[in-house]
Design goal:
This protein is α+β, with helices and mostly antiparallel strands. The chain is 52% helix and 17% strand. Strands 4-5-3-6 form a four-stranded antiparallel sheet, with helices on one face. Strands 1-2 form a two-stranded antiparallel ribbon. A hairpin with a 2-residue loop joins strand 1 and strand 2.
Amino acid sequence: MSNPWVIDQLHVTIRLVLALLLGGLIGFEREVSSHAAGLRTHILVCVGSTLVMLLSMYGFSAFVNEVNVRIDPSRLAAQVISGIGFLGAGTIIFNGRSITGLTTAASLWVVAGIGLAVGAGFYYPAILACFMVLISLWILNKVELKYFNGKKIRVIKIQAIDQPGTLGLITTLLGKHKVDIRKIAMDEQETVNEIKNIQITFHVTIPKMSIIISVLEEISQTIGVTGVTIEKSKI
């Protein structure tokens, strides 16, 4: 590339694909660690930032030789990053331990980059980035459901009578099914007919989703257990 203000489609493709791979690697690690911002979110942010930088550096090359025109490759990227953050923050909902809207915030951010690229006539990288975002949102969502579902932390809430040995029986049962216990919490509940009740909360990872029903059935049949529920953790 002899002209610093011009880039060919091959190099645009290489940079955007590399951004997808690098963002995906970081997102994969976060996904395995059960963090809220996972594979798709990191890919969207990485591809979007690369697109904006490409646009800022090469999207206005037609005006380089114009009189009284000075090109600053960093100005556009800086303004978009600071501006789109307010819009993205509006889609993130935090309610206690539940966080939702991160992928939506990232998609809004990358869509802003695509819009800037199209508005400047930088069509090829905008279209390429758009397809990458669609792949992240549609296809990788199915990949996550198939391969990462077992890595998600689940919350098992057990209602039981407060008596010695109940916790030990349940942990032994979970260990038999190779359920990995990450955290245990016990809370006292209302006393009914002079019988003290407790709620035991397990944060666990389950090796196979097919064993959930059998695990819940065995827990419910444990002496002293009066109720059991399971849900996904969004910590």
